[in-house]
């Protein structure tokens, strides 16, 4: 693992990812509405002059924008055939690779690698090839190309063949599966994925644990990592942005509304996630129910604020999971709720301002994923918390490596232990909670997004 390198002079930088920095919605009147996203890559690239972001057109709005030639400077959207994209994104990336790296399969029905899987795999290859060809076409001599995530695992190898002059990096935003689990994949597919990433000069991960798992797979399946260097860059929270944004008027308004909903004087246990199976929202609700059941002194005195933003709703398993989250929350409210107290406040809708309001109000943050590459919510809450917030954190989140010593740590499967951790967090002395929050916030901002990106770029150019 490399030490952080010094800054380097700028040259052309290309980034490739499935989801790009902008998306378009097609209005009924034919208008196109652009929505710009945030995140580590957007912030990192802002420091670069000569840049291009290659991404996929994801919906009707994006596709229409490509057809009309509408776009942002520095962004090239690839209009890949919609069926090919659906197979690659929903079929392979999100239903197979995501499940392998997050260890989400449940026997006896899954996984099944059959002819349908092979058909989808051909789409995944075609989708990766479209990216490799676009990058090969756009990149200047010796440019740096940073390829993102499990969607594009084959791109580094394909691009290396087309353009041996380029400096190619690959970054995994997810965990990496331990070798025994990774071996669920058909042997040729496992090898192809590893060779794909090893086409990069440098493969990087969010934590040492995921990097070690990747090295373990390469060593045991291929006999080594070849000439590819392995790096670790733990993305941190963007403190300046968050602190500014969390004090804008719309967040204040939502705080007032939320306070009214939770009721005066009540403690809050806050969680904010996508409706994502790996986030373990249902077991979090079970733990909260166990708390109310086993420690009735908390009834009427605490509210579980759960914000779950719809994600990957094209997949039945995600729709079912979202329905299960709603069902369990409703059941808790029906069993324990009283005239003036709703035990769970659940919102299944994307609203960043409301999330920030909840961050500021939280007494306890519940972050209990089954597995998670990093989990930025665990880092963001201590940074914007108004009065200090105790963090209940899964030991399977990447953030655990950096925040574990000041969190109340849980095994995400252990509902009883999570209930006990919630009680411990709720009863933590105020001065201890404040001191821990301060240390958590300091650890959370250690590698802000722009630095995270520039460090990767410098290491790629230097190695
Ligand atoms: O964790 C991997 C990741 O690609 C994140 O970078 C991103 O926030 C998340 O998955 C969202 O996935 P999708 O693009 O499928 O909504």
UniProtKB/TrEMBL annotation:
It holds the Pfam family Glyco_transf_20. GO terms for cellular component: cytosol. The lineage of its organism: Bacteria, Bacillati, Actinomycetota, Actinomycetes, Kitasatosporales. This is Trehalose 6-phosphate synthase. Belongs to the glycosyltransferase 20 family. CDD domains: GT20_TPS. It comes from the Bacteria. It comes from Streptomyces atratus. GO terms for molecular function: alpha,alpha-trehalose-phosphate synthase (UDP-forming) activity; trehalose-phosphatase activity.
């Amino acid at each position: 693992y490399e030490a952080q390198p010094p800054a380097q002079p700028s040259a052309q930088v290309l980034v490739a990812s499935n989801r790009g920095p902008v998306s378009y919605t097609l209005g009924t009147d034919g208008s196109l509405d652009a929505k710009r996203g945030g995140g580590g890559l957007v912030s990192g690239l802002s420091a670069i002059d000569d840049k291009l972001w290659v991404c996929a057109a994801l919906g009707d709005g994006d596709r229409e924008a490509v057809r009309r030639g509408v776009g942002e400077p520095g962004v090239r959207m690839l209009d890949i055939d919609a069926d090919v994209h659906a197979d690659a994104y929903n079929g392979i990336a999100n239903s197979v690779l995501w499940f392998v790296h997050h260890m989400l399969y449940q026997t006896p029905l899954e996984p099944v690698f059959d002819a349908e899987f092979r058909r989808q795999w051909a789409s995944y290859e075609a989708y990766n090839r479209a990216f490799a060809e676009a990058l090969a076409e756009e990149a200047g001599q010796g440019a740096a190309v940073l390829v993102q995530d499990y969607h594009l695992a084959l791109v580094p190898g394909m691009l290396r063949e087309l353009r041996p002059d380029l400096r190619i990096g690959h970054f995994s935003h997810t965990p990496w599966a331990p070798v025994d689990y990774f071996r669920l994949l058909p042997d040729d597919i496992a090898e192809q994925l590893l060779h794909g990433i090893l086409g990069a000069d440098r493969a990087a991960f969010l934590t040492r644990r995921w990097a070690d798992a990747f090295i373990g797979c390469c060593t045991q399946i291929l006999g080594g990592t070849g000439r590819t260097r392995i790096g670790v860059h733990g993305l941190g929270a963007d403190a300046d942005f968050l602190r500014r944004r969390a004090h804008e008027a719309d967040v204040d308004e939502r705080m007032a509304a939320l306070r009214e909903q939770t009721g005066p004087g009540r403690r809050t246990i806050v969680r904010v996630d996508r409706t994502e199976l790996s986030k373990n929202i249902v077991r979090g609700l079970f733990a909260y129910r166990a708390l109310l059941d086993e420690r009735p002194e908390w009834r009427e005195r605490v509210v579980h604020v759960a914000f779950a933003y719809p994600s990957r709703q094209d997949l039945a398993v995600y729709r079912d999971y979202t329905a299960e989250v709603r069902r369990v929350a409703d059941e808790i409210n029906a069993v324990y709720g009283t005239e003036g107290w709703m035990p769970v406040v659940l919102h299944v809708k994307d609203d960043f301002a409301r999330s920030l309001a909840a961050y500021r109000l939280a007494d306890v943050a519940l972050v209990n994923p089954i597995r998670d590459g990093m989990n930025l919510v665990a880092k963001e809450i201590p940074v914007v918390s108004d009065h200090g917030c105790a963090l209940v954190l899964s030991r399977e989140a990447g953030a655990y490596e950096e925040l574990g010593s000041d969190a109340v740590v849980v095994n995400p499967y252990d509902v009883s232990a999570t209930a006990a951790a919630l009680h411990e967090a709720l009863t933590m002395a105020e001065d201890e909670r404040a001191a821990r929050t301060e240390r958590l916030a300091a650890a959370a901002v250690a590698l802000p997004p722009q630095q995270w990106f520039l460090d990767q770029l410098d290491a790629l150019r230097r190695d």
